[in-house]
């Protein structure tokens, strides 16, 4: 699926939700700026329109990432191997 991403990360502060929130906020702002500034992007208006429509549903200007997450705690090497193999 080209429309999603899997992240494997570790939160030093034991606050993975905060780390993910910060990551999503940072990347969404950067990607929105990149889309706006790219004069070669032929789908720019459509992308901004779709992101704007989704954002208005939740009271924001734009929405890039989905609101929900499906975190899986990777607590052992066996779980990591099993999870990675399931996704390939």
UniProtKB/TrEMBL annotation:
Domain of life assignment: Bacteria
Protein name: Transposase IS200-like domain-containing protein
Species: Sphingobacterium pedocola
């Amino acid at each position: 699926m080209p429309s999603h991403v899997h992240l494997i990360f570790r939160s030093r502060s034991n606050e993975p939700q905060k780390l993910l929130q910060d990551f999503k906020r940072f990347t969404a702002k950067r990607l929105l700026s990149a889309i706006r500034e790219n004069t070669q992007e032929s789908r720019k208006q459509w992308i901004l329109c779709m992101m704007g429509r989704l954002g208005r549903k939740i009271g924001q200007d734009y929405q890039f990432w989905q609101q929900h997450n499906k975190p899986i705690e990777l607590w052992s090497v066996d779980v990591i191997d099993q999870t990675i193999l399931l996704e390939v």
